[in-house]
Amino acid sequence: MNSEQLRQALRLYLVMGSSNCAGADPYAVLEAAIEGGITMFQFREKGAGALQGQARLELGARLRRLCAQRGVPFIVNDDERLALELEADGIHIGQEDAPAAAMRRRLPGMIVGVSAHDLLEAESALAAGADYLGVGPQYATRTKLDAREVQGPAVIARMRAGGIRLPLVGIGGIDAANAPAVIRAGADGVAVVSAISQARSPKQAAAELLNTIKSIGRNS
Ligand SMILES: Cc1ncc(COP(=O)(O)OP(=O)(O)O)c(N)n1
Ligand SMILES: Cc1ncsc1CCOP(=O)(O)O
Ligand SMILES: [Mg+2]
C-alpha cells in the first residue's frame, strides 16, 4: 500500500476489542461497521474483561478473516506475535510499547502505526520508519483509562506546521460532531472506538462519520 492509499484507508479507522462493544457480539459490530463504511480496523483486545490466550487468538482470527473478505486493512494493537499469527496488515504501537524501528525491521511489509503526542514524538516516529501516526487524545475519552492529557486538534496543526507530512489520524473522544475540527487541523482521518462500537447502530454511526469526513475533505 503506498502512502496515498494509506491516507485513504485511514479516513475512518475503527479501533475495537470485545470489551468495547457494550455486551454486543464484536463480530456483528465489526460487520455492521464495515457495512457503514469504515476504511481500516485495529484489533485492540485490551483493558478490563479483555480476552486472553486462545480465546483472544480465535476472536482475532475471525475478525481478521472478515476484514480480508471485505477488503478492510486489519491492524493489531501492541502485540507483535499476534500480528504475525494473524497475518495482519500491520501493527500499532505506542510510546510505551516496543520501539518502532524494531517493529519496522521485524515485521517487513507490515504497516507500522505509532502513537505520537507532540512534534518531537512525531519526528522520532518518522525517523524510526513509522507509516502513520495516531495522535491523541484529541478529546476526553472513557475508553483508555491511562490516556495522556487531552491535546485538542491544535497538536495536529502543530505537527503539520512543523513539517510532518506522514499520514495521520486523530484519536480520543471523537464523534461526528467534533470530527470536522480534527480533519481541518490536518488529519487524514479519525480513529474511533466508542462512537461506533457502542452506538445503537454501529452501521449508521460509521456511515454518519464517513459522510462528515468526506464533506470536509482533506487539508494536508
Ligand atoms: C490509531 C491509534 N492511535 C493511538 C493509539 C494508542 O496507542 P497506545 O498509546 O499504545 O495505547 P494503547 O492503545 O495500546 O492502549 C491506538 N491504539 N491507535
Ligand atoms: C486507544 C486510544 N488512544 C488514545 S485515546 C484512545 C481511546 C479512544 O476511544 P474513544 O474513541 O472511545 O474515545
Ligand atoms: Mg499500545
TrEMBL record:
Domain Thiamine phosphate synthase/TenI as annotated: residue spans: 12-196
GO biological process: thiamine biosynthetic process; thiamine diphosphate biosynthetic process
Keywords for the protein's UniProt record, in alphabetical order: Magnesium, Metal-binding, Thiamine biosynthesis, Transferase
Pathway in which this enzyme or protein is active: Cofactor biosynthesis; thiamine diphosphate biosynthesis; thiamine phosphate from 4-amino-2-methyl-5-diphosphomethylpyrimidine and 4-methyl-5-(2-phosphoethyl)-thiazole: step 1/1
Catalyzed reaction equations: 4-methyl-5-(2-phosphooxyethyl)-thiazole + 4-amino-2-methyl-5-(diphosphooxymethyl)pyrimidine + H(+) = thiamine phosphate + diphosphate; 2-[(2R,5Z)-2-carboxy-4-methylthiazol-5(2H)-ylidene]ethyl phosphate + 4-amino-2-methyl-5-(diphosphooxymethyl)pyrimidine + 2 H(+) = thiamine phosphate + CO2 + diphosphate; 2-(2-carboxy-4-methylthiazol-5-yl)ethyl phosphate + 4-amino-2-methyl-5-(diphosphooxymethyl)pyrimidine + 2 H(+) = thiamine phosphate + CO2 + diphosphate
Binding residue positions for 2-[(2R,5Z)-2-carboxy-4-methylthiazol-5(2H)-ylidene]ethyl phosphate: 141-143, 173, 193-194
Bound cofactor: record note: Binds 1 Mg(2+) ion per subunit.
Cofactor(s) required for function per UniProt: Mg(2+)
Residue positions binding Mg(2+): 78, 97
Transmembrane parts of this sequence: none
Gene Ontology cellular component annotations, sorted alphabetically: cytoplasm
Pfam (any one): TMP-TENI
Chain positions recorded as 4-amino-2-methyl-5-(diphosphooxymethyl)pyrimidine binding sites: 42-46, 77, 115, 144
GO molecular function, one term: thiamine-phosphate diphosphorylase activity
EC number(s) per entry: 2.5.1.3
InterPro entries according to UniProt: Aldolase_TIM (IPR013785), ThiamineP_synth_sf (IPR036206), ThiamineP_synth_TenI (IPR022998), TMP_synthase (IPR034291)
Function: Condenses 4-methyl-5-(beta-hydroxyethyl)thiazole monophosphate (THZ-P) and 2-methyl-4-amino-5-hydroxymethyl pyrimidine pyrophosphate (HMP-PP) to form thiamine monophosphate (TMP).
Annotated HAMAP family: TMP_synthase
UniProt-recorded name of the protein: Thiamine-phosphate synthase
Organism of provenance: Paenibacillus sedimenti
Gene that this polypeptide is encoded by: thiE
